[in-house]
Amino acid sequence: MSTVLFRKVYLFKFTSTIMKRFLTSDEPSTSKKAKTEDFLEEIQNNRLKTAESIVEFKFNKKRIKILNKYDEVPESNSEGGICYWMARDQRVQDNWAMLFTQKLALKNKLPMHVVFCLTDKFMDATLRHYKFMLDGLEEVSLDLKKLSINFHLLIGEHKKEIPKFVKDFKIGALVCDFSPLRIHREWVEKIKKELPSKVPFIQVDAHNIVPIWIASDKQEYAARTIRNKINSKLGDYLTEFPPVIKHPYKPEDSLRPEPIDWEELLESLKIDRSVEPVDWIKPGYKNSIEMLESFIMKRLKHFGDKRNDPTLSVLSNLSPYFHYGQIAVQRSIIEVKKYKSSASASVDAFCEEAIVRRELSDNFCFYNPNYDNLKGITDWAMKTLNDHRKDKRDYVYTRKEFEEAKTHDDLWNSAQIQMTKEGKMHGFLRMYWAKKILEWTASPEEGLETAIYLNDRFNLDGRDPNGFVGCMWSIGGIHDQGWGERKIFGKIRFMNYDGCKRKFDIKKFIARYGGVVHHKKK
């Protein structure tokens, strides 16, 4: 084995081992499993205390939007059942779209189906992302089977496969979840045009606590302009969930789903396999609950004042689960808020990030069609970047050099290594990382494209409104204000190496991930 190859293999194993130790204690796995099972049981009991099923629960109709002109399940040609097209929210319980689908199915005494449509190519997703998602969906399929709800995996284009399923299975109504991203909205519009006549098409925002169309009717300028709009509505929307129950109406045998070989499915996909799965975080609803429980018990008390220190393990590590919808943000908030009296500052900080900042990101992507390019930034930000467009760059790197962590900055390189090896960069360093890309590329456009590409390629929570807004904040000043003028940055907020030194022990972080200084001619 060559020295270079040996170093790469060793580094991967080293960082993987470090991450496991960093996030877990020496607590026996059997004890951890028992605690998680108790937590799962407690959550389910709380659902049952709320209502026996969605039928007895007062569902807030403001969570839904009727996407076409039909609002009643037709009397004929609907005997196949009610269908939920699952996309962004890949879980069974604590899912308002799933619950609304069951509500319709129970009301009309019809079977219930859940479909997921899989494509080979999705926004630079790699083996790392597909493996995490499919393992989670396998758990979804098993959980649905226990509830006598049919899970169908469709392969191909959404605009063809979803309408075809609705027609072939004589579906009486189609429910979908919500995403503000361009690709999902295009799917929705194309499916709407192809659905059989008189089939209602209903969207439920199962991702945000306050539905996107209720929180605000415009693009918000900053967290301060949306904070009260969201917080003032939490009383109506931050409620306990009723349970999804065993469904009493079963479909005809001919409408039952085909069995799925999940390993064979993953092998068959024509995807980029060069970015490998990670093993420090396990996918699926049960694992997300275990992560939530460990955050509450071990890390929450330090979250308020230590969350910006990348050398400490105090983050929730829930963002991959939030991204795939394997756990509801609302469930996390419900459970975390129970510790308000003992960890007030930490609970407030977590709610600010998980509710206000996260829903602000959805707001930006929903109301701004240019959420991933510089046409979407404010006039002052565009002017200042243009004013400094021709400023001399001391360093200019290619995308490949960035990807391989070959810059002159050992802290930046260590952050890049963390992302490529573990699939999750620390939140504080994501800001520094993106701002340095602006500083070290030939243009702001190239900088933004590079940051989004690397974020989406390596982070498990990439291809997400939070990621787009994070890059746009760092490089384009979105949700920020003008600061003192500097070379290249203009009035965009500046971050540097010495500033990070004052925040945390950068030598400790660099030692953990092994970023080294690479020399390049200026």
TrEMBL record:
Domain of life: Eukaryota
SUPFAM superfamilies linked: Cryptochrome/photolyase FAD-binding domain, Cryptochrome/photolyase, N-terminal domain
UniProt cross-references to PROSITE patterns, sorted A to Z: DNA_PHOTOLYASES_2_1 (PS01083), DNA_PHOTOLYASES_2_2 (PS01084), PHR_CRY_ALPHA_BETA (PS51645)
Keyword DNA damage among UniProt keywords: yes
Keywords: DNA damage, DNA repair, DNA-binding, FAD, Flavoprotein, Lyase
Biological processes, Gene Ontology terms: photoreactive repair; UV protection
Keyword Nuclease: no
Pfam families documented for this protein: DNA_photolyase
Domain spans labelled Photolyase/cryptochrome alpha/beta: 80-212
EC number: 4.1.99.3
Family affiliation: Belongs to the DNA photolyase class-2 family.
NCBIfam families according to UniProt: phr2
Role noted for this protein: Involved in repair of UV radiation-induced DNA damage. Catalyzes the light-dependent monomerization (300-600 nm) of cyclobutyl pyrimidine dimers (in cis-syn configuration), which are formed between adjacent bases on the same DNA strand upon exposure to ultraviolet radiation.
Protein name as it appears in the record: Deoxyribodipyrimidine photo-lyase
Organism, as annotated: Chironomus riparius
Lineage start: Eukaryota, Metazoa, Ecdysozoa, Arthropoda, Hexapoda
